[in-house]
Amino acid sequence: MHRVVRILFLADTHLGFDLPRRPRIDRRRRGHDFFANYERALQAARDLAVDAVVHGGDLFYRSRIPASLVQQGMLPLKRLADAGIPVYVVPGNHERSAVPFPLLAQHPHIHLFDRPRTYTAEWNGVRVALAGLPFHRDGVRTAFPALLDQTGWEPGQADVNLLCFHQCFEGATVGPQNYTFRTAADVVRASDLPAAFAAVLAGHIHRHQVLTTDLRGRPLPAPVIYPGSIERTAWAERGEEKGYVVLEVTPGGPGGVLRHWTFHPLPARPMVIEEIRADGADGPAVRRLLGDVIGRAAPDAVLQIRVHGEPRPDGLEALRAASVRALAPATMNVEVAPASKGALQASSQRAHHVQRHLWTSRPRGAARRGPRERRPAPGSTA
Ligand SMILES: [Mn+2]
Description:
- By secondary structure, the protein is of the alpha/beta class.
- Helix content is 24%, strand content 27%.
- It has eight helices and 19 strands.
- Residues 342-374 have low confidence and may be disordered.
- The chain binds manganese (II) ion.
- The site of manganese (II) ion has 7 residues, from loops.
């Protein structure tokens, strides 16, 4: 018998993102893309006949969600569990660290890290212990060693030890400028990671990455795997590939060995930022400029058009959201934003609304920062 365990690991699915029940305006909603990729990843778990699925948190896009959305999001997990593939779920910051849906906990094959705890299982003759904790909002940096103790994990408790959480880890990077998480209160220290784990399965950082060294370049006792989000949730993620990870662990060493991992990309819609110069432009001129950039973008793109300068009044009219959408294919998401403050009253209000809409799902904890750390644009972790 091959003493190998295969686990499909996904995180930050943000179900319900841009999926209003009663939309005020008729435009393409990105929420369906999130659901489609979620289903693709879980279907892969069945096709690959993995031994278990781990969800690294932020299953839903916020904590208060309609019951119908909970049902819709839970159904694919229940199908997996019904098929005999156990599912482990880490509550993320968008679940407020306590998943408000008792359905999850009721299924015998769905296991929730509703508090720091350790689940054990045996697959293919390999005893596996999965220690995990729900998202810890305040000062995880100092709290982490105690939280880890509270999981009840022990060296030698199984052939393979895995650790699951939804936190920033030292050295993780996000955003177009490769912002690096270092010493802030919400960043888990590399030196607090015990040696006896085969791998850390982490959610929260939306960029896929596997960390193998600390900030000084010293090897970590175990790789920290971020599968990243399954779709782009913010402009800061526009260059990132999206997907999930399949990993293979096997006995060996103090807590097992990560033998292999593979990143499986999912189709994510292209996000494009274009700039136009509209100073003094009238309606027809603005529509021409918009038509040019819209025509250049892929028909399924998520497009932001940044406008420089102050157009004439009818040019401003042409920049209203509904007018812009009318110029774009129905498959495209398009929004207009002012390139600078003070310009474009009408569209800047619209842009403000768009940003609030995009960023209301930002975790409260993300606002906390260390004294010397500057944060990237909101939404890049979340
Ligand atoms: Mn998230």
